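Query structure, 271 tokens:
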């Protein structure tokens, strides 16, 4: 499962895990500090903000070459570009300093940070374990010419499967990024699996945008999105050469976030 539906909203599971972990941390801090009337809620929000900023800066510094032409994308966090461990390290150090300065906060803040980090870490570990136990579905689709094809036909190389639609603005924005990656990474198979639209509409869109894509597939019933548990577009799935899922990305990909995902895919395909 990649998303959790809350009414009309489809929330990414990692985002839900972060919110749940923050709630558990706040509840723990309130419970431990209730007798001394010291609630570390404000400090917890501060630590979360610092962790996110540092995680984003670490990502930008590591992939700075992808931001030189469009530096404004540094603040466009819709691409999900974060490196967690520097943010966590700085948050722990800052939390330790805050607790050292104020002895009354040591127990509630320390307990809250520990519960929050453990719950988040366990949730992410479980999510990754679930993903890596998932295989490419055995599903028949049609190609852009209406001919039948199967997802399993593309196993044998590392595989990137992008679920998209022409009506989806972030899908349209990320399509040139994926098109360039397909041209530059011939050792990887890229599949563009359109969700719910017809051949003519897709062909008109690609022609109007000047996009030349290989492996455009039609899933007129949106079955693949339902099968992988994603109710939002765009969704991108990453599989190793044997068809095992090794990662996923919900939302728009930038050049930087796709470069990181492809690096991780390459590492997981090494013998």
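Result returned for the query:
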């Amino acid at each position: 499962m990649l998303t959790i539906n809350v009414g009309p909203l489809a929330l990414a599971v990692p985002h839900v895990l972060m919110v749940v972990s923050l709630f558990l941390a706040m509840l723990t801090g309130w419970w431990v500090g209730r007798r001394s009337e010291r609630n570390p809620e404000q400090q917890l929000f501060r630590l979360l903000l610092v962790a996110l900023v540092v995680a984003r800066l670490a990502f930008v510094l590591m992939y700075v070459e992808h931001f030189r032409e469009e530096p404004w994308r540094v603040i466009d966090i819709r691409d999900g570009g974060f490196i967690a461990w520097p943010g966590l390290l700085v948050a722990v150090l800052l939390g330790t300093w805050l607790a050292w300065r104020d002895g009354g906060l040591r127990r509630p803040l320390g307990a809250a940070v520990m519960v929050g980090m453990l719950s988040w870490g366990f949730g992410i570990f479980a999510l990754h374990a679930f993903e890596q136990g998932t295989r490419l579905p055995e599903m028949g689709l049609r190609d852009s010419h209406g001919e039948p094809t199967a997802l399993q036909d593309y196993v044998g190389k590392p595989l990137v499967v992008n679920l998209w639609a022409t009506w989806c603005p972030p899908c349209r924005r990320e399509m040139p990024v994926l098109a360039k990656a397909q041209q530059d990474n011939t050792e990887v198979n890229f599949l563009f699996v359109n969700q719910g639209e017809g051949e003519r509409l897709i062909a008109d869109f690609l022609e109007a945008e000047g996009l030349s894509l290989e492996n455009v597939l039609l899933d007129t019933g949106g079955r693949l999105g339902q099968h992988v548990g994603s109710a939002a577009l765009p969704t991108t799935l990453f599989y190793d050469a044997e068809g095992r899922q090794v990662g996923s990305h919900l939302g728009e990909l930038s050049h930087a976030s796709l470069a990181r995902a492809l690096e991780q895919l390459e590492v997981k395909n090494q013998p």
